[in-house]
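Structure tokens
________________
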Amino acid sequence: MPASLTRPNRLRPLLAPLLLAAGLAQAQAQPDWSTVADPLPGPPQIFGHHGAACIIGAEALPPEGPGYQAVDLERNRYYGHPELIDYVQRLGQKIADAGFGPMLVGDLAQPRGGPMSYGHVSHQSGLDVDIWFRLDLPLLDRSERENLDQPILVDPDTGRMDPNRWTDDHAQLIRLAADDPRVARIFVDAAVKQDLCEREWDDRSWLRQVRPWSAHDEHLHVRLRCPADSPACVDQPEPPPGEGCRNLVPTPRTGVDPSPIRTLPTACRAVLQR
């Protein structure tokens, strides 16, 4: 596979130095949430929003189950609110019932949420999960699931989906992922969204939740709504009405989200230190 069409997962930590100097200095001043190995026990509670949040009572996603297998377990980013764990497992079962997969589950959140040292600005609340587009791998041993390559499915010359890599199963994966009332957003590359819009679907209402976002040409990013048990959790506004299929403009692959480190809710100080 040409190097330009695949992104080795093991290189992602090396992207951190590309952050703006001011943002990096601010990040270094923040406590290192990645050093916390375990969740804080208690009834599930989320404080804050997807880009500045923490969580009590997070659960670990089992490393494998019907229709899915989790990757990059050494990162210790396979925790989430119980609703997210249930969502992933239900989606895995849908994939198994559909007869393709298994799907590869990437990052969820750290044991207590909070900012990550590299790779994401979001994924802090325990309501985000990355699902890889790779559907070509058999069940692997856990040690074989580290540093796998993620093929990019958008042709860099045409800006359209690469017909040699993009299949109906990939489109079906996104539809199944969106088919849950808990889903607030699914982020994919603009070319992926365009392909979905051009297809014939019996029900097109789910397309509203699928939003274009840069650097999502090898995975989809699912974000759930705030659960009822977390009144301090802050939801995103609902997406605009309609399918969101007009004026789709390809965006350059930036590699690193340049968003600044945001101030965490005061309650997160106790979540980290206990």
